[in-house]
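SECTION: protein entry
WANTED: fold as tokens:
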Amino acid sequence: MATDAETDVFEAHRPVLMGVAYRMLGRVTDAEDVVQEAWLRWSAADRSEVREPRAYLVRVTTRLAIDRLRQVKARGETYVGPWLPEPYVTDFGDTVPDTAEQAVLADSVSLAVLVVLESLSPLERAVFVLREAFGYPYADIAAMLDRAEPAVRQLAGRARRHVEERRPRYDVDPVVRRDLTERFLAAAGGGDLEGLMSLLAPDVRLVGDSGGKTKAPLRVLESADHVGRFVVGVAGKGVADLSWRFLEVNGGPAVLVLSGGKPDSVFQMDVLDGRIQAVYIIRNPDKLHALSAA
């Protein structure tokens, strides 16, 4: 059984472990389960074999996440409609004082990047997360995954090329994103289609995730005309006892929409050059439980 001091060590590393697990899995509940299992492994570990707690805990968490990822069978074939990651409330606070490093962490947990990571193999995803998001040396990653370093470098190169080819470009500046989000809300709420269209890039995309459990587009909507008319139409129908507020999700500003005080949806936008490039709407109720107390 872990001592109080050993419990404190684990809790000090929990944010990093959760960060690794969530980026690996794209699901908050699964990430929390993996971190809890890591705690059980830590509490039962032979301390004489643990030279560096952080390295040990990240290794255990990564391997557990890989196992969990491999257990997910044919999710893309059975999921109804487009899939988006479960929204993850992020607040880097004082843990990442360097602005450039915070931008890297925010990008690595963004909805757009996590969607791309879904197409990687579990090992490729693990290497990409450990290298690109957390900056681990190849030698350390090789030890964590019990692979030769040259093999890890090959996995990293393949994963990086794959992500770069598919990663959409967007502005990570939270001030710009929030400003456009506020203007988007005002135009949609006022039924101002022309004003809304002026905010949208011509090739804007709207991705709605309902899992087939509530109303949302079952395909990706494309073009400013289609997205604008859809948003104005939905806004015109209203939501019962509607309220909303901003929060930080996946490294950027997002809007939590509440109906009767309960989470109804989360939406977030990618922006570039002063225009909205993508609108993400998450309405699957299974993915909103964690936001009830957010």
